[in-house]
Structure prediction request, 485 residues.
Amino acid sequence: MPETAFASARELLARMARRELSSGDLLEQCVARVERHNPPLNAVVTLDLERARARAAAADAALGRGESWGPLHGLPVTIKDTWETAGIRSTSGAPQYAEHVPATDAAAVRRLIDAGCIVFGKSNTPMLGGDVQTYNEVFGVTNSAWDVARSPGGSSGGAATAVATGMSAFELGSDIGGSIRTPSNWSGVYGLKTSYGIVPMRGHIAPAPGALSLSDLCVAGPIARDAADLDLLLDLLAGPLEEEAVGWRLALPPPRRRALREYRVAAWLDDASFPVDAAVAERLQATVAALRAAGVRVDEAARPAFALADCMRDYQRLLYPVIAAGYPLEAFEGFLALAPDMDPAATDAFSRFVTFGTARHREWLTAREAGARYRAALRDFFRDHDVLLCPVTPVAAIPHDHTDPLPARKILVNGAERSYVELFAWISIATLGYLPAASAPVGLTRGGLPVGVQIVAPYLEDRTAVDFARRLGEVIGGFEAPPGY
Prediction:
C-alpha cells in the first residue's frame, strides 16, 4: 500500500510543497489504485488521464519555478458525475446525458480547479442524483468497499467510495436528500452538507445542463478522509457567484468553542416515529459516552420545538416538487392524473410523492412558510446548544435493492420491515432547516460496517460543525480504511 493512499489532502499538499512528492507521482499512484481496486467497486466511471498527466507535469514545473497555483496546487481528485466538468463526459447517470461533454465547469468545480487541483476522473451517481443507492443505466452499480453486496449510499456513492479507498484525495458532493451525509456515513469518511446557498450549484445536473436557477434545499459540500480537509475545502467553495460578488461577501463565523469540553451538546439519537437499529444505536451511545468521558456535557433530553414526523412530512412537501420537476413530461402527467384520487392525509411513500410532487404553487408556498417556521424553531434551539447530534440513517449500509418503484422498497430496523423512505428521516432536520451538518465516522458495528454521527450546527456556522467533527475524532472514531484496501 503506498504511504500516500490514505493521507489527508493537507498532508499530501504539504509533502508536494516540500518537494517530497511530485504531482505526477501522486497522480500515477491514484491511477494505479483505480486500476487495482475500482473494477469490483465501480466507483470511478470516467477517466481523463491525458489532460490530467499534462496538468500534473505543468504543476510540477511551476512548483520548480517557485510558482503556486493556489491552496490545492497539483492535487489529483475525482469529481462526482452530477457536476459539469469541462471537456470530460458529465452524465449524472442519465441516459439522455450519456454523451454530454460540457464546455465549461460547474461553478464549484471551477473554484477547485482555480485553487490548483487536477481532475482526473468522475465518480458514479444514481440517475440525476435521485436515490440513496448508487446505480444507473449508463455505468451500472457501485458497490461498498466494506461489503460489495451492499450499497455505499447515494447519491455521492462513487465519491465516498473513491475517497474511502484512496483513489481520490477528496471529492465534491451534493446533497438534497442526504447525498453527502449518507454515503459518508456508510463508507466511513467525513462529509459536510453546507448551509443552504453558500456554495453555488450552477452547473449541477439536475436540473438540466445550462439551468441558471437555484433549486430549493440542494447544496454542495466536500467529502474527505480528515475533518480538517473539510475546513480547507469550505474556504475554497463558499462564496457568491461572480455576478453577485459585486454586492456582497460571505464571512462565515469561526467555531463557537475553542475546546471540545466547552461545547454545549444536545443528542437526539432515537425517535418512536423513526426508530434506529440497535447496531447503529450502540455506536451512537458509545459516542455520547466518549464525549462525557472527555468532560463534555451532553443533553439527551433537549429537542427543537417540533416532532421529527412533522419535520419529515414538511421536508417531503418541499423535496418532492424538486424531484418531480426533473421527470419527463409524460411521467409527470401520469402523476397529475393520479393526484385527485389520493388521500391528502395518506402517509405512505407513494401517496405522498404524488400529492406533494404535483402540488399547486399555492400549496408549495404554504410548505415554504412551514419550512421558515422550522428554521425559526431551530434558531431558538441553538441559542442554548452549539450542536445537535443525530443519526445519519437508521441503519448501516444496506444490501443492494433496486426494486421499482422506489417507495415499495423496505429496510430492516431491529428485524422489522420499515419503509425505504425512512432513510431520509434523520437528514430532514438539517435540510429543511438550511443548516450545516457534518457526518463523522464513529466506529464500526459488530458486523464490521461503518457508522457515522450527524453533527448539525446553526445556520452559517459550518465551521462549528467541522470543528466539532475534528475534535470528536480525537476521542472516538475517525477515518478507518476498509479491509483489503
In short: The domain at 260-472 is CATH 3.90.1300.10 (Amidase signature (AS) enzymes). The CA atoms of residues 132 and 154 lie 4 Å apart. The chain is about 35% helix and 15% strand.
